[in-house]
């Protein structure tokens, strides 16, 4: 397993989108090779305008099982929820 190239996660920004979307993974020797390989594998029809590659070992993620304890503290921050503001009638739809 030591001779295997690192795994890279590939994100593509589409021509009509503003954000990058995860499209898959590939093995490559370095970031430059990963971008070239990602271009060949995931953008064959010129559908992308930008490619991001991230070495999979560098990604840290939360577990879906921990969503309760992770997001519950935000419920204590009522100032983030605009439920107590009075909106003037002449402001229109918001």
Question: Notable features of this structure?
Answer:
single chain; 94 residues; alpha+beta; Ubiquitin-like (UB roll); three-stranded antiparallel β-sheet; 3 strands; flat
Structural class: alpha+beta
Query: What do we call the CATH homologous superfamily?
Result: Phenylacetic acid degradation B
Q: Tell me the series of helices and strands, N- to C-terminal.
A: EEHEH
What is the typical, i.e. mean, pLDDT?
86
Total count of domains:
1
Number of E strands? 3
Name of the CATH first level? Alpha Beta
Backbone CA Rg? 21 Å
Report, as a whole number of angstroms, the end-to-end distance.
56 Å
* Biggest beta-sheet profile: 3 strands, antiparallel
Q: Percent of residues in beta strands?
A: 25-35%
Side by side, the strands of the main sheet go: 2-1-3
């Amino acid at each position: 397993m030591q001779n295997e190239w690192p795994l890279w996660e590939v994100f593509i920004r589409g021509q009509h989108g503003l954000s990058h979307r995860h499209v898959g993974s590939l093995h490559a020797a370095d970031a430059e090779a990963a971008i070239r390989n990602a271009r060949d594998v995931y953008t064959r029809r010129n559908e992308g305008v930008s490619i991001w590659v991230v070495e999979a070992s560098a990604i840290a993620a939360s577990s879906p099982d921990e969503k309760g304890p992770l997001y519950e503290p935000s419920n204590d921050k009522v100032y983030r929820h605009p439920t107590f503001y009075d909106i003037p009638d002449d402001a229109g739809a918001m």
